[in-house]
Design a protein that fits this description.
- With 328 residues, the protein is an all-alpha fold.
- It has 8 helices and no strands.
- The protein is elongated and about 75 Å long.
- The model has no long low-confidence stretch (mean pLDDT 76).
Length: 328
């Protein structure tokens, strides 16, 4: 049954068959490759984000209203409501993820249709660039096209959740909310500062992999033994990739430490306010959950920013390939 259903799924037709153009910008590519589907995906993403907020307040009500008052009926009622929201959100999130994947793969297909025509037009030329052709039509457009499916929707869902949860926390307990912000803002500045180095490494990686493809095809065509160039390029790819991981995981570790310290401070400040009679335990529980729900979307937004910058670099290099301008 599922196999028959999946066979009926077809890619949508983009507004233009030439989605990769000269002087292309990433937002322009996203719009031409997906069009109105971005609005549909974005609307579904907002629904998921709003439902993700509901459990935060329900946790507070379960602790303060049901458990504290020993109200068993309210406990089961709130618990059933909590479960219903979790199930509905899970179904909508699955639909969102599948929709994003369908939009992304449709964009990849449209772009590949164009790139294959460009590659066929160069078939009579020197085959020295055939290695680049394989990389461009394969992994490179996969990365850029995959960004189309998640670009706007991921940004919308995480930004919506961030605003809603932050507003809720400010309304319930401004002091803890401001303390939380102290540990979140520096993470944004740190990610933006380190992104320039990551962009440089991404661009270099794409160029090196293209070079390796060309060198491999050239050696295979000449039927001679390797000259050693391939091995030097492979070593360069290794060093560049290690540098990329050094910065990427270093940034991720710093963000994780800042997030853990933030959670600890929220517990300490919240606990102090409870002792002083200025807050309830339910509020502290809601804030710990809220801080985690803020840090999650914030990290996702930072990941979106990193993926956006990397996709922009890769699209720029694909456009140059289409124009016949090969980078050294």
């Amino acid at each position: 049954m599922f196999a028959a259903l999946l066979r009926r799924i077809r890619p949508f037709k983009a507004s233009s068959t030439e989605v990769v153009r000269s002087n292309e910008t990433l937002p322009g590519f996203v719009w031409r490759a997906s069009g109105v589907h971005q609005f549909y995906v974005g609307s579904l993403a907002i629904a998921v984000a709003l439902l993700n907020f509901a459990p935060i307040d329900l946790q507070r009500r379960i602790v303060d209203d049901a458990i504290s008052n020993r109200d068993v009926k309210a406990l089961f009622l709130l618990g059933a409501f909590y479960l219903a929201i979790v199930v509905i959100q899970g179904v909508l999130k699955y639909a969102l993820l599948f929709y994003q994947a369908w939009v992304g793969e449709s964009a990849v297909k449209t772009a590949r249709d164009q790139l294959v025509i460009v590659a066929s037009g160069r078939a009579s030329q020197d085959g020295a660039t055939s290695g680049q052709t394989v990389n461009v039509i394969g992994r490179e457009i996969d990365n850029v096209g995959g960004f189309v499916g998640t670009s706007i929707s991921e940004f919308v869902v995480n930004l919506t959740l961030l605003i809603v949860v932050a507003g809720y926390m400010l309304y319930i307990q401004p002091v803890i909310a401001l303390v939380s912000a102290v540990f979140l803002v520096p993470q944004v500045l740190l990610a933006r500062y380190m992104q320039a180095d990551l962009n440089t490494l991404v661009q270099r990686q794409v160029g090196l992999v293209r070079r390796l493809g060309d060198e491999t095809v050239t050696q295979a065509a000449s039927k001679f033994k390797t000259t050693g160039k391939e091995f030097r390029t492979i070593r360069a790819i290794f060093r560049n990739r290690i540098g990329f991981y050094f910065f990427k995981y270093g940034l991720k570790t710093q963000l994780s430490v800042a997030n853990a310290v933030g959670t600890l401070v929220v517990l300490i400040v919240g606990g102090y306010l409870v002792i002083q009679g200025q807050a309830t335990i339910g509020v502290v529980v809601a804030f710990v959950s809220g801080f985690e729900r803020i840090s999650g979307p914030l990290h996702d937004l930072l990941n979106f920013y990193r993926e956006y910058e990397q996709a922009k670099v890769q699209l720029k290099m694909i456009v140059k390939w289409v124009e016949g301008k090969q980078e050294a």
